Amino acid sequence: MGLFSKKEEKEEVKEVEETLPKDLASAKKVVEKKIINMLKTIQDPEIPVDIFELGLVYEIKIDDQFNVDVEMTLTSPNCPVAESMPAEVKEKTEYVFGVKSVNVNIVFDPPWSHDFMSEEAKLELGFL
Predict the structure, then answer these.
(1) CATH class of 22-118
(2) What is the pLDDT of residues 19-78, one digit of tens each?
(3) Is 59 helix (H, G, I), strand (E, B) or coil?
(4) Each residue's pLDDT tens digit, 87-107
(5) pTM for the model
(6) Domain coordinates of the chain in residue numbers?
(7) In what order do the strands lie in the sheet with 57-62?
(8) How far is it, in rounded angstroms, from Cα 18 to Cα 24?
(9) What are residue 57's DSSP bridge partners?
């Protein structure tokens, strides 16, 4: 037997179980919010702000089977995390309950600029 009794183990599993609303549109909104929250855990290595508030995520598309397409950019085409950041975005998005598959598309049009940052990010970096 592990650290917990069988009863405690079952209770712990019950707490982790998640469900989505039965309405497809509502379920997609819930999943999108969870994806955004997950993406906010990824920090840009050069700018101390998460990639979502930084405006690097342009679009999150979720189809009816919960396959996810994330369209994002990097601060520059020569970004030192050009390979690792999309992989981290894919991996963390796959952890979100309900997500079936993830495809990350890196685009450079439109090119990223400070204008894409949220008010929160601009304030944090002293642009406001």
Answers:
(1) alpha beta
(2) 899 999 999 999 999 999 999 999 988 888 999 999 999 999 999 999 999 999 998 888
(3) strand
(4) 999 999 999 999 999 999 999
(5) 0.83
(6) 22-118
(7) 57-62, 67-72, 101-106
(8) 16
(9) 72
